[in-house]
């Protein structure tokens, strides 16, 4: 056995709820996932033909070529894969829709001449792929979210933490997990999730109810529909009524 070690980045994907779909559906989704992975790797500048690939049954493990820039496996590879999965799922039948858990790690591995890869980093990768926080996050996400991503602490520290182009530490949250004998912290993200509400409107105060006046001295302005009228209130001293046909009626309220 070759005792030389090579530092490699390793990625694994596992199809969510693949059991019970039947052989035909499983073969279809495995083929489509492999195709989309290849496209995502190539879009990220990583030579797919130089990667070492291992079939996991309902997923795939990929060992990147030596010297691969690890950050590229997070961005743009993961967004590229999530985009393809989400687009594919729009037209897929329920039995062939694909959502996946993605795990990323890196370390020194043995690479045999025949392409076999071995070493403890692969054990860590397998535990990341089975980590309960990643499973729960994907299961609880809207169906439009096609993947969960879990990075080992080592991978996160060497890539995302530095905030390189396309990498946003605030998009990840730290989670702890135990799988078999392995206990560790990792970093979780849901790529492809819907954007959060606009912070400029999320906390906006509600409009006053019909017939409710603005507080005296208020400098705020607001609009509301009353029947077929649009009521615009300006600075608390007047009301402008505009009908649907554009006619405006202005009433000035004077204080006594």
Please give a structural write-up.
This protein is of the alpha+beta class and 256 residues long. Helices cover 27% and strands 30% of the residues. It contains 7 helices and 12 strands. The chain has helices spanning 23-43, 70-74, 77-91, 120-129, 132-140, 153-158, 199-202; strands spanning 5-15, 52-55, 59-63, 100-111, 117-118, 147-152, 173-179, 182-189, 221-226, 229-234, 238-243, 248-252. The strands form 2 sheets. Strands 1, 2, 3, 4, 5, 6, 7 and 8 form an 8-stranded mixed β-sheet that branches. β11 (238-243) and β12 form a beta hairpin. It is globular and about 45 Å long. Residues 194-256 have low confidence and may be disordered.
The coarse silhouette is globular
Query: Which spans of ≥5 residues are poorly predicted at pLDDT below 50?
Result: 194-256
CA-atom Rg in angstroms: 27 Å
Cα distance, first to last residue?
Answer: 98 Å
Average the pLDDT over all residues and give the rounded result. Answer: 82
Instruction: Characterize the biggest β-sheet.
Output: 8 strands, mixed
Report the sheet-strand fraction: 25-35%
Q: DSSP helix count?
A: 7
Total E-strand runs:
12
Structural class: alpha+beta
Task: Indicate the percent of residues in helices.
Answer: 25-40%
Secondary-structure element sequence? EHEEHHEEHHEHEEHEEEE
Secondary structure blueprint with pairings:
Elements: E1 5-15, H1 23-43, E2 52-55, E3 59-63, H2 70-74, H3 77-91, E4 100-111, E5 117-118, H4 120-129, H5 132-140, E6 147-152, H6 153-158, E7 173-179, E8 182-189, H7 199-202, E9 221-226, E10 229-234, E11 238-243, E12 248-252
Parallel strand pairs: 4-6
Antiparallel strand pairs: 1-3, 1-4, 2-3, 4-5, 6-8, 7-8, 9-10, 10-11, 11-12
């Amino acid at each position: 056995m070759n005792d030389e070690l090579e530092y490699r980045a390793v990625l694994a994907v596992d199809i969510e709820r693949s059991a019970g779909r039947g052989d035909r559906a499983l073969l279809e989704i495995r083929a489509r996932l492999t195709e989309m992975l290849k496209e995502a790797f190539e879009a990220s500048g990583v030579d797919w033909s130089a990667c070492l690939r291992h079939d996991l049954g309902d997923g795939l493990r990929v060992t990147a070529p030596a010297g691969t820039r690890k950050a590229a496996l997070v961005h743009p590879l993961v967004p590229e894969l999530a985009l393809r999965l989400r687009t594919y799922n729009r037209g897929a039948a329920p039995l062939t829709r694909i959502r996946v858990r993605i795990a990323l790690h890196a370390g020194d591995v043995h690479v045999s001449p025949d392409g076999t890869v071995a070493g403890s980093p692969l054990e860590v990768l397998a535990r990341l792929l089975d980590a309960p926080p990643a499973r729960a996050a994907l299961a609880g996400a809207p169906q439009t979210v096609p993947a969960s991503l879990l990075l080992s602490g080592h991978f996160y520290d060497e890539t995302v933490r530095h905030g390189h182009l396309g990498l946003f530490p605030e998009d990840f949250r730290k989670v702890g997990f135990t799988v078999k004998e392995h206990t560790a912290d990792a970093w979780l993200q849901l790529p492809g999730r819907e954007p959060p509400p606009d912070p400029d409107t999320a906390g906006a105060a509600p409009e006053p109810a019909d017939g409710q006046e603005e507080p005296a001295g208020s400098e705020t302005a607001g609009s509301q529909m009353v029947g077929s009228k649009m009521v615009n209130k300006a600075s608390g001293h007047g009301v402008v009524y505009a009908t649907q046909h554009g006619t405006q009626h202005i009433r000035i309220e004077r204080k006594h």
